[in-house]
Specification:
By secondary structure, the chain is an alpha/beta fold. The protein has one domain: Alpha/beta knot, CATH 3.40.1280. The protein contains five helices and nine strands. The chain has a seven-stranded parallel beta sheet. The chain has a two-stranded antiparallel ribbon with strand order 8-9. The two termini are about 30 Å apart. About 30% of the residues are buried. The model has no long low-confidence stretch (mean pLDDT about 90).
Length: about 170
Amino acid sequence: MTNHIALFEPLMPANTGNIARTCAGTDTALHLIEPLGFKIDDKHLKRAGLDYWDSVDITYHADLQDFLASIPDLNQLYLVSKFAEHDYTDVDYSDTGKDHYFLFGKETTGLPEPFMRKYPEKAIRIPQDDSHIRALNLSNSAAIVIYEALRQQQFPNLERSHHYENDKLK
């Protein structure tokens, strides 16, 4: 079982770098759906995920259709959008025998509206106060959703505690 975060046409290198860091720390695969709004060697991207790029399983996709074709079971695809009716916590991600794919939209426009209309049952949202902000930060949203999936899966292969001895982390 693998969890996957997919970014549709990401624009901001710092968000993608931070998400790559989260992927490295959670053993989550990262999918980048082109076109990207930056060059992969962008200094901001590297700064955000500097020491982690070689630890991330990254797959590049030419477009949304290419990404969808790479998913063996579309029942395990979740579209993260503020326009969804169901909260991300309403979904059962505990089946560790299946891969889970979390698709996030472009920072400025989200996922394409015709695509969202085609798969409304796959859409999940993070509750927020829309009267104060348009949307949560993309990298924060990715972390919130992936950690909920991992929590339900009992944090597989992740260290859950550290021991302190003589004020040093062991």
